[in-house]
């Protein structure tokens, strides 16, 4: 499992990694898109079209911190939040956990491989070739 991604909560879990609820995902998207630590106020301002109360955003970030999805540091009197892992690492872990739900990982992988576009298949082939060249299983 990817460090910092274990957790539970209202949104539930797929095995080891927490699935995010709609508002949690919106907050995480802000943090992932910005790429720099943000305060509650900065996240709330970015989500202003949703008309969320400051305290709602603060509660979501606090819960995400408790679940290991974000890390926080003091920034003066406020907390500054950043993702504990990249969006790609989170999605990859979701995919691995979903694969673990299958009674036949091989069949699930074949089904997945057949469902991707030609470009995505090329990306997978290149990644597999790179892993093979590095001597990883």
Automatic annotation (TrEMBL):
<keyword id="KW-0805">Transcription regulation</keyword>
<comment type="similarity">
    <text>Belongs to the BlaI transcriptional regulatory family.</text>
</comment>
<dbReference type="GO" id="GO:0003677">
    <property type="term" value="F:DNA binding"/>
</dbReference>
<dbReference type="GO" id="GO:0045892">
    <property type="term" value="P:negative regulation of DNA-templated transcription"/>
</dbReference>
<keyword id="KW-0804">Transcription</keyword>
<dbReference type="Pfam" id="PF03965">
    <property type="entry name" value="Penicillinase_R"/>
</dbReference>
<keyword id="KW-0238">DNA-binding</keyword>
<dbReference type="InterPro" id="IPR036388">
    <property type="entry name" value="WH-like_DNA-bd_sf"/>
</dbReference>
<dbReference type="InterPro" id="IPR005650">
    <property type="entry name" value="BlaI_family"/>
</dbReference>
<dbReference type="InterPro" id="IPR036390">
    <property type="entry name" value="WH_DNA-bd_sf"/>
</dbReference>
<protein>
    <recommendedName>
        <fullName>Penicillinase repressor</fullName>
    </recommendedName>
</protein>
